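With this grant's support, we have settled on a layout for protein records. One resulting record is reproduced below.
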Amino acid sequence: MSNLCKMVNVSEGSADSISSLMSKGIHAVMNHVNVTNGIYDSADQIINFGKNIVGAGLKWCARLNLLPLYEEVRSETGADNRMFVRKSERGGFENIHKLFTKLSENGAKPSFVQIDSGLFDELQGISLSFEEQTRMVNSVINAVKAVFPECKVIIGTKNSLDNEAAKKWFNRFQVSGGKKFDIISLEYELSSETFYNLSLNMSDLSRRFEAAIIVDISGQADAASADIGLEDLDSAVSIVPMDKGFGTVYAVNAV
């Protein structure tokens, strides 16, 4: 279990107490990056955050919120799917590529990026096929890998307990030509009633998609008082088949 990654989810720009995080055994820090058109021109806060984390010897995970960018594109194209997808692909690649190039030039190198699979559910006013969604995700992965080939790609899902739903999404992503990813993040709230289902889902997804598994409990502020302990979660992650148990993402107040 000592080899598991211990990641903490913080707000953008709140890396003030890095030393205290390190003293608690944290290996990596995640923050949310709201992607907009031209983000690379106003990226000082993102750059400084990344430099602080990397400079302290920790790994940095940039969780990319692409919804603001896509909403900007939709305001230009309306419900014209073809134009929307084309501009979203181009916008996703160009903005992430230019942002990550700036990060590279300033010594702020993320070890991980996360893209959430449910982001298209939040995009109102336009209907996309799964193939169109996949193209948009691929453009972001391509941009990341073009600058940082060794950066690990995390695909996040809220389907931590619904194995059929999680399996269906990742199957469709692969069949639609989805780019290779490295880690599946399962968003979860600790509970003895659902813990077994989480364990089954971790085992099945890791085998089926040859991906590492990280469990994200950062949305659960009172995780320490749950009827399943953090040690129990570590144990379950550590026995994911083929050594694919990667670690856990915690809220700041849970570590």
Summary: The first strand starts at residue 5 and ends at 9. The mean pLDDT is 93. Residues 81-105 form the longest helix (25 residues).
